[in-house]
Specification:
This protein has 258 residues and is α/β, with parallel strands linked by helices. The chain contains eleven helices and five strands; from the N terminus they run αααααβαβααβαβαβα.
C-alpha cells in the first residue's frame, strides 16, 4: 500500500470520527495502530484500547464540565484537607460521605463550626467528589442565592430559576448565619430547600448552632420548618471552634522567625 493510499484512508477515518463525534479516536488511532503493531496486538485488542481512550477522555470532559458548572470559589479537594489539624473532624466519616451514598439517599450534610475550622473546604471537597461521580452540582453562598431569587422574582422569572436549581443533584449553601435575611428572602430560600427535601442532596455550612438560627430567619415558624427539613436524616458534623486558618498562619510566622 503506497503512502498516498494510506494518507487517504487516514483522512477518511478522521472524517468519520468527526461525523461520529469521536475526537479522541480521530487524534490517536494512527499512533495507537503503530503501537499495536510493535506490541503484536490483535485487532480486537487494538480496538479495545482505542475505544477505551475515547471513553476515558469523554469521562474526563464530563467531570471537567461538572466542576465548571459547580462554580466553586476554589477547587479544594478532600485529599488536600489536613485532618491532623482538625481533631474534631472524623476523617472516616468524611471519606464515607465522599463515596456518595448520601447523594443516592438524598440526605443533607450540615457542617457547624466557627470561622476558619474547615467547613467550606470540606463542603467544597464533597462537591468535587460528587463532580467526579458526574453529578450535577452547584455551590453558592446563602446570600448569593437569596439575591438571585429576589431578583428573579422582581423580573417575573422565579419559576424558571427554581426549575434550574431543581435540576442539580447536589446544592451546597455556604455561610448560613453570616447575613440576616429579610422575610421575603427567607421565604424564597425555604422554597428551594423544601422542594429538595427527601429528593436531592443538600450541604450547608453554618457558624451558628441551630438554637440561634432565628438570628438569620426572624420568622420563628419558618425557621422551625426550615430546620425540620434540613436536619431530617442529616449528617451533622461539628468542626469545632479553633480556627484552622489562624493556626496555620501562626505556624507560618513561627517558621519565618525560626
Amino acid at each position: 500500500m503506497n503512502a498516498q493510499t494510506v494518507a487517504l484512508e487516514q483522512a477518511t477515518i478522521r472524517q468519520y470520527c468527526k461525523q461520529l463525534r469521536t475526537p479522541t479516536i480521530g487524534a490517536q488511532f494512527e499512533k495507537m495502530a503503530e503501537e499495536a503493531v510493535k506490541q503484536k496486538q490483535s485487532h480486537v485488542r487494538y480496538l479495545e484500547v482505542l475505544l477505551g481512550a475515547e471513553v476515558e477522555e469523554r469521562e474526563r470532559r464530563v467531570v471537567e464540565r461538572r466542576l465548571k458548572e459547580a462554580r466553586l470559589p476554589r477547587i479544594k479537594t478532600l485529599e488536600e484537607f489536613d485532618f491532623g489539624q482538625s481533631p474534631r473532624i472524623a476523617a472516616p466519616e468524611i471519606r464515607e460521605l465522599a463515596d456518595g451514598r448520601y447523594l443516592q439517599q438524598a440526605e443533607p450534610v450540615v457542617f457547624i463550626g466557627d470561622c476558619g475550622t474547615g467547613k467550606t473546604h470540606l463542603a467544597s471537597g464533597l462537591c468535587v467528589a460528587a463532580c467526579r461521580q458526574k453529578k450535577r452540582v452547584r455551590f453558592t453562598t446563602v446570600a448569593g442565592l437569596v439575591n438571585e431569587l429576589v431578583e428573579a422574582q422582581h423580573h417575573n422569572q422565579l419559576g424558571r430559576l427554581l426549575a434550574r436549581w431543581a435540576r442539580y443533584e447536589l446544592i451546597t449553601l455556604d455561610e448560613v448565619g453570616y447575613v440576616p435575611l429579610a422575610e421575603v428572602g427567607a421565604e424564597l430560600l425555604f422554597q428551594v430547600i423544601a422542594d429538595r427535601a427527601e429528593r436531592t442532596a443538600l450541604i450547608i455550612t453554618t457558624n451558628l448552632p441551630f438554637s440561634e438560627w432565628t438570628q438569620v430567619f426572624p420568622n420563628a415558624r419558618l425557621c422551625k420548618a426550615l430546620l425540620d427539613r434540613i436536619t431530617d436524616r442529616a449528617h451533622i458534623i461539628e468542626t469545632g471552634t479553633e480556627s484552622y486558618r489562624f493556626k496555620r498562619t501562626l505556624e507560618k510566622r513561627q517558621k519565618k522567625k525560626g
